[in-house]
Design goal:
Order of helices and strands: EHEHEHEHHEHHEHHH
CATH topology of the largest domain: Rossmann fold
CATH class of the largest domain: Alpha Beta
Number of domains: 2
Structural class: alpha/beta
Radius of gyration: 18 Å
Number of helices: 10
Oligomer: single chain
CATH superfamily of the largest domain: P-loop containing nucleotide triphosphate hydrolases
Length: about 200
C-alpha cells in the first residue's frame, strides 16, 4: 500500500463530494483513534455530502444482515466500521458479496492500516472497486488555509458553472437554492450576511 499523506477530514469529505453518489472509499483512521475522530469525520461528511451519515458496525453482522443494513435506506452515507479484526474468511465473504453491497449512497470503510492490508490481501475485487479512493485521516487543524479556501471556491464554481459574483447576486435576489453547498460558498466568500 502506498504511503499516504494525512489529510484533514474536510478535504477527504470534499473529495468524496466531487466523486458524487455511489462513491466507495477507504479512510485510514488515525492510529490512536477514538470515537471523537469518527464523530468529527462524520460531521464533515454531513456538511459536504449534504445528508445523514450512518455508522454500521460490521463486526457482529452476518453477510445477509450487512446487506440489509446497507440497503435500508440505500441512498444515505454509510461509514462501515468493525472491519479491522476481519480474518481472511471474513474478507473473502465480503469480497464475494461485493455486488450485494452496491448502493446509491456513499460507502466509507473506516479502517486501520492493518485492516486496509487485510482488504488488499483478501478482497481483491472489493479493492479494485475502491480503486484509488484511499485516504489517510489526519488532524483537521480547525480552519481552512487561504489556499484550501480558494481551491474549494474553484471546485464549487466548476461544479455549478457559476462564479462568485453570480452566487452573490443570486443570494441578494433571494433566488439562490438553499443547498448546503451554496451556504458553504457564501460563508467562504465572507458573505454569511446573505444567508
Amino acid at each position: 500500500m502506498p504511503d499516504l499523506e494525512p489529510q484533514p477530514g474536510h478535504e477527504i469529505a470534499r473529495r468524496l463530494e466531487l466523486r458524487g453518489s455511489h462513491a466507495w472509499a477507504v479512510v485510514l483512521k488515525p492510529p490512536d483513534t477514538a470515537v471523537p475522530a469518527l464523530d468529527a469525520f462524520e460531521d464533515e461528511l454531513e456538511v459536504y455530502l449534504g445528508g445523514r451519515v450512518r455508522t454500521v458496525d460490521a463486526s457482529q453482522l452476518s453477510m445477509a444482515d450487512l446487506r440489509e443494513q446497507l440497503q435500508s435506506p440505500p441512498d444515505d452515507v454509510i461509514v462501515l466500521t468493525g472491519l479491522d479484526d476481519f480474518d481472511e474468511d471474513s474478507w473473502t465473504a465480503l469480497d464475494i458479496n461485493r455486488d450485494g453491497m452496491e448502493r446509491q449512497g456513499t460507502l466509507v470503510l473506516w479502517l486501520s492500516s492493518e485492516g486496509a492490508l487485510g482488504l488488499c490481501r483478501h478482497a481483491p475485487n472489493l479493492r479494485s472497486f475502491i480503486g484509488g479512493s484511499i485516504f489517510h485521516l489526519g488532524p483537521d487543524g480547525g480552519i481552512m488555509t487561504e489556499q484550501e479556501r480558494q481551491r474549494r471556491l474553484a471546485d464549487l464554481a466548476a461544479h455549478y458553472k457559476l462564479d462568485n459574483e453570480q452566487v452573490i447576486r443570486l443570494a441578494e435576489a433571494r433566488t439562490l437554492p438553499p443547498d448546503p453547498e451554496f451556504v458553504e460558498w457564501l460563508v467562504l466568500l465572507g458573505r454569511g450576511d446573505l444567508l
